[in-house]
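Researcher: Going back to the complex we discussed earlier. I've cleaned up the inputs and rechecked each line, so this should be the final set. Can you rerun the prediction on the complete assembly and write out the structure?
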Amino acid sequence: MTQEAPGTRPKAVQSPLTLIMRIKSPEAGTQLEALLHRLQSAPPGKNPIWNALDTLMTVHFARFVFLENNTRLAVITTYDGSFDDYINDFIDAIGDVFNAILQFMDDAPPLPVQQNRQAFLDYVRANDLRGLEPFYSAYPTSTVVTIMDALKDQA
Amino acid sequence: MSALDLGDIQGFIMRSYMMPTLRVFVLRVVEPGRARATLGAMVGEKPGVPQVTTAAQWSEKPEYCVNIAITHGGLEALQVPQASLQTFPPEFVEGVVARADRVGDSGPSAPSTWKGGLAGPGVHILLLLFAQDAAARERETARWRSRLGESGLVEQFCQDGDALPGNLAHFGYRDGFSQPTIEGGLPGLIPDPLPAAPAGSFLLGHPSQFQDFTYPVPQPDDLGRNGTFMALRILEQDCAAFERFLAEAPDRYGISGELLAAKICGRWRNGVPLSLSPDTDAPDPPIADEQMGSFDYVPTPANPDAFDDRKGTRCPIGSHIRRMNPRHASVAGGGGLKRRIIRRGLPYGPPFDVSHPEDGLERGLVGLFIGVSLKDQFEFLMKDWVNKGDFAPGISGTRDVIIGVNADVDNRFVIPRAGEPPIVVTGFPQFVKTRGAAYGFLPSITAIRHLAAV
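Model: Rerun complete. Updated structure for the full complex:
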C-alpha cells in the first residue's frame, strides 16, 4: 500500500444515509417496534433486511434506531456510490421492508414503493440528514464489492 | 403475458435489419402542419411514400427500411401540447446537451465540438434510412429529398454509416454478438444465454426489468405506448492512436498487440470471447458464431461448467464487454442483468490503412442505443460502468479503455494474471470522441398517427 502525500486522501466512495422518519402515533410506534423485532430476530438466512442488503452489495453497515421517545425511526447506513443511480436496485432488493415500515409513518410516499419509485426517492431525499461534510472513511476507495472479493481471497 | 403487437412497433427496436448501409437525416420542423402530415403519410400506406418499417415479420426482405425518432424539441415543434410534453422523462426533456457531462461528453467530446448542428436547437426529427446497398440508399434519398420542399421539414445534416469489409468495426473488432432477447419478441441471430429481458425494458407500457414496475407511459397513451427511447451517438475513432497503442504492447508489457486488444475488449478482435478461449483467438475446435455469446464469468445453472473468472484472469473485470454486460458477475446493486441495451448502427468513414495512418479522414461509429429508460440504461452505463470503477472489485479509479474518458487523466488498465502480478497498462489516450448525439423518442405506429392528427 502506497503512502499518501498529506492532503491527497481521495474522497470517500462511501456516503452516509441518516434517514429520519416520523412515526404516526404511539400505537403505530408499538406496532413498528414489534415488526422490527420480528424481522431482526429471524433465524440466519431468513432476515429479509439482511438478505436484501447481501444482494445489493452497496451497503456496508445498517442500523435502525428509535429516537425521541419512540416518535422517530432512524435508518442509518453507510453505502457506496450514488443513491440516485442505484435507487432501482435498492427498491428491488429491499422495497418490501420499506413497504412494511412506511405504513407507520407520517407523510409516507404512496405504497408500494416498487410502483411509485420517484416518490420514494423524493421521500428519502427529503428526510435524509446525511452528515456534516467531509465524511470520514478509514478506507475511502474500498467498496463492498472490493472488500467482499478481497475477503474471499483470504479465505 | 400478452403478445406484443409487432405491427405497431418500429422494426429496428426488435431486430437488426442486417443491412450494410445507413443514412441518418437530421431534420428541422419549419411548418408544423405539413410536418405532421408528412409523418402521417409515412404510416398511412400512401402509395409512393416510404412507410415506417415495423417489427412485423417479412415474407421478403425489403430493399430499404425507414424509421423515425423525435427529440423533445421536435415534439414541441410539432405542437404536441405542453401537458403531454411534460409527461416525458426528465432526461429526455433536458436533452443531450444538458446531460453531456453525465455521460462523459466533456473536453474533446463536449457539445461545442459536435458537428451537424447537433448541439443546437433545431434537431427535431431523425429519419433513419437503412438500405441493402449504396444504390438503394441513393435512390431512396433522392426520392425523399425530392419531396422535402412540401414536407414542412428541412434537412439540417446527414450522417452515413457503411459496413466495412469483413463486417469489422474500425478498431478491427468483429462486433454485435451480444444482444438481449426480448420476451415476446423476435428470436436473436445469436443465442443469448442470459434470461430474456421483459418487454418493458425496451417498450413503454409493459412491465420492466425492475420489480413490479412499468415505466410511466408518456401521455396520452396512444402517444407513449409501444414507443421507446434511443441515444444516437456519432463516435469518432482514433485508429492511428489505437494501432500505436497495440504496437507498443510487446516492448512495454511483454504481450502481443492482439492479446492487449483482446484484454481491453473481452473478445479477441475476431470475436472469440476470452472467457471461452483465453490464450488463443483460434481455439481447436473452433467456436461457431452461434456460440459466441454462450459464456459467463462465474458458474451458473445455465453455464455450470463456466470457469470461475471472479478475478478476471481470463476476461479482465475492466474490459469493455464485461463492463457493459457483467452477466452473473458480482456488481454493486446486484443488477448485472437489469442494464441490458439494444445496439444498432454501423461504422462510418473509409477503412483505416495502417500504412497511411495520418490520412486526416474521419472515421468511427454511428451508434443507435435503445432502451425504455435513457437514464437507467444508456446514461447509467456511461456514467457508472464506463467512466467509473466502483461497481466491481479491482477496477477502482479506472475507466473503459476503448470508449471511456481517458484524456488528461491518469489512466490505468489492470490485466490480472493467475499466480503472477498483474500487468498494469498506463498512459493511453482517449480513443473515442463524441462528434454528435441526440436523444430520440421512437414512437409506435399508433403514436405517429396520433401525432399526425394533433
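Model: Worth noting: The first helix of chain B runs from residue 11 to 14.
Researcher: Good, that matches what I expected from the previous run.
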